[in-house]
Amino acid sequence: MQAILFDLEGVIYQQKKLIDGAAETMEWVRKQHIPHLFVTNTTTMSQQQVSALLTSLGVYNTPEQILTPAVTTRDWLQQHPGQKMAVFVPDAIRHEFDDVVSFNDSEAAGVIVGDLGANWNYFTLNHAFRILTQSPETVLVALGMSRYHADDAGLHMDAGPFIKALEFASGKSALVMGKPASSFFQEALQKLNADASQVLMVGDDLMADVIAAKNCGIHGCLVRTGKYQSQDERGVIKAEFVIDSIRDLPTLWVEGQLSQVS
């Protein structure tokens, strides 16, 4: 094993508070000179904001080490110059799309959807639906397909269920820019310049992190923090590795279990 992909929320921090042992593990990764990226489905913070948060928590990083759905969507938009899109995303990343935004039903070539949380309502969802049905060519761009996220109050629906509603109503399949899309993991591998068989994905979401990575040939490690639930280990689909928290990653690595994987 040569490189690591780290999920952030639920793995490195929870509710912007460092998970116990995360800073020490990340410092160990640096000292071992292990190439790594932070891959996150967050649409409530920009790449720069995520970088600043990690720095404030004592986790060394550069913005280039952080891959978000907004970053991959910008790359996609560069391949489709001149297109206008209706943008349903949190205010924190809305500026990323200032040059392409249009809510004119006839002008927008599609919609970009992120996690609006409590700001979702019938009017907003129906507006996105109307734009999608203007033409057979309109596209539904999803900034991730996470089913839910966790905070101190419990589990909350993420963007995935709302995107599924738009898919069902419009008859269109979403172009997913974040996890669990294989294109997201492929972009991460390109940035690492690493072969999938030599990369480990560490996440708290069995399906969107671990199994999605496995489907790309990447090894997966599930942590028992964040949105992890005990039933994640009782189903037919299982993670290759499971550890209590990010604190235990160096032990897993040093004990040789990962070095024997190919």
UniProtKB/TrEMBL annotation:
Its cofactor is Mg(2+). One of its GO terms (molecular function) is hydrolase activity. It comes from the Bacteria. Coiled coil: none annotated. Keywords: Hydrolase, Magnesium, Metal-binding. The keyword Membrane does not apply. PANTHER family: 4-NITROPHENYLPHOSPHATASE-RELATED (PTHR19288), HALOACID DEHALOGENASE-LIKE HYDROLASE DOMAIN-CONTAINING PROTEIN 2 (PTHR19288:SF46). Belongs to the HAD-like hydrolase superfamily. This is Haloacid dehalogenase-like hydrolase domain-containing protein 2. It comes from Bacterioplanoides pacificum.
